[in-house]
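input
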Amino acid sequence: MKAVIEMKGIQRFYKLGGKKGEEAVIVRALRGLDFSAEAGEFVSVMGPSGSGKSTLMNILGCLDKPNAGTYSLDGIETSKSSADTFAYIRNRKIGFVFQSFNLLGRTTALENVELPLFYRRREKGEKRFSAKTRKEKALAALKEVGLGKRLHHVPSQLSGGQQQRVAIARAMVNDPAFILADEPTGNLDTGMTLEIMGLFQELNNRGKTIVMVTHEPELAAYTKRIVTLRDGELVSDKPVTERRNAMEDLARWKQDHALLSGEELAGAAEAAEAAAAIAPVEEELSA
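output
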């Protein structure tokens, strides 16, 4: 299998203080980390606060550079890349999915998904997409995430789960080397969380490579491999042996939720009947 991500000896440290004769404090966020992901993998990155998850995500997303080590993304060595190359990589090679959706509030779902195509970084000799082509590609991406009938809705007209689906469509529209998801269900309830994880599993089954940063073991169980960080080091890298199926869990959740709703309705009806039976007695006593 082709390695989409290949990291070797990644170090990232920060200097704190050191002004006016003070001794600088070195904070080592990543300590010589090795990490790789092949095409078609679905990897979750876990670890406690301060483990280096956010630093790793920033380097994976080419939002930051390591102090030492090498990072090859889809065959491009990024560690010493220029700002222009970084911008090209972020636009063409990585599809970002964030916890807070980051959609433009006054822009339709279709227009939100078109944005990466409008700002598409072109290779030498590559032609710019026409408005028609951008629209067709955005439409196809929205249909792929099940929002073909929500094209002209703005974010305020969509549920949280639907907004995240728009964000996923936007992440996929440039056909990136991999999708980088940072706590993608953090703002969603249980049902919507299972929907989004089901969508990720479906996309992964079609060959999409996904790296997801999460602190929830329940979500990591839907991926294929769990990488655990601690104190800036990779301490565990294991396959998920009993992988959960999000759509099956969603079906069970809906069934349980429907039963619970039915019980609540029955309880409300019984309470109403009891109140109706008590009312004449209270009237008689007050008379």
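quick obs: The chain has a mean pLDDT of 89.
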